[in-house]
Design a protein that fits this description.
278 residues, Rossmann fold, globular
Length: 278
């Protein structure tokens, strides 16, 4: 079975590119195989009921009957442009999901940022089994959302990824990560190592061009494409300082063995920077 060097777990059809598009482009340029797995990419059944909230989102996106199909097309266009491969899992966005009793647990804007509904535990168990079967090797890197912003679908993917037992690198979700406090909330009280990935100018431009292919989603965050491009560049420059960058996080699990001085071992607060390629 062919395996991938890098697998990105994207809750929705844009999350991985919004957060990691520059790194993905550089990895592909270096000759590495990259797969983006979008977990909640499925289309609701043709005659499935929709909550009023879901209907309002369809209207905002500009197409009612085929919203999910259009978003899949946008995702394929973006990933093809970057040179990565795509897998769309059949699970639907939280705005479409129902409990066994037929209720919509996420039927308002506010509910998207709350804790996972108890009825979703069986979904997490199913996702864990699929994550364990991913085409990765011992040396492959798996990237999961850090859950900046606390979106419920991001929480589900992170919980399933952690339960799969795979070593993970976490990406901070843009544009939610523009709020430094939201990043700290997602990190919680754990010990973390920040890893900066420097982006060359071509990578930054490629990321911006890929994001622009998600046309139905641009209005959710920005007035137009120009504002999006300026926002992407400003955030990358803020994270990287003199060199634009994306920031990733690795949970620091200290060894149980005592340090030579008898302490518990120190955790470096400084980020490690990986130079851009391409």
């Amino acid at each position: 079975m062919n395996t991938y060097d890098h697998v990105y777990l994207s809750p929705h059809l844009d999350d991985a590119i919004l957060s990691c598009g520059g790194h993905i482009w550089q990895q592909v340029q270096a000759g590495e195989r990259v797969l983006v797995v979008t977990v909640f990419a499925g289309m609701p059944a043709p005659h499935a009921p929709l909550s009023p909230f879901a209907q309002s989102l369809h209207a905002r996106w500009g197409h009612l009957a085929d919203a999910a199909a259009r978003r899949q097309e946008e995702d394929l266009a973006a990933l093809t442009f970057l040179g990565a491969e795509a897998v769309h899992w059949p699970y639907t966005d939280c705005i479409y999901r129902q409990t066994p009793a037929g209720h919509f647990p996420y039927a308002s804007e506010e509910s998207l940022w709350e804790d996972i509904h108890p009825a979703e535990q069986s979904l997490i168990v199913e996702l864990v089994a699929r994550l364990k079967a991913l085409p990765v090797s011992r040396n492959s890197m798996v990237y999961a959302p850090l859950t900046v912003g606390h979106h419920v679908d991001h929480q589900v993917v992170r919980q399933a990824a952690q339960a799969s037992g795979r070593p993970l690198t976490y990406y901070e979700e843009f544009p939610y990560a523009e709020d430094a406090q939201a990043v700290q909330v997602a990190l919680g009280k754990g010990q973390w190592q920040a890893r900066l990935v420097s982006l060359c100018e071509q990578a930054l431009e490629a990321k911006t061009a890929a994001i622009a292919r998600y046309r139905s989603q641009l209005s959710t965050f920005w007035a137009d494409e120009a504002e999006m491009a300026a926002s992407v560049r400003a955030f990358a420059e803020r994270i990287g300082g003199c060199v634009p960058a994306e920031r990733y996080w690795i949970e620091d699990r200290p060894s149980p063995q005592p340090s030579p001085r008898g302490g518990e071992g120190a955790h470096s607060p400084l980020p490690v920077r990986e130079r851009g390629r391409g």
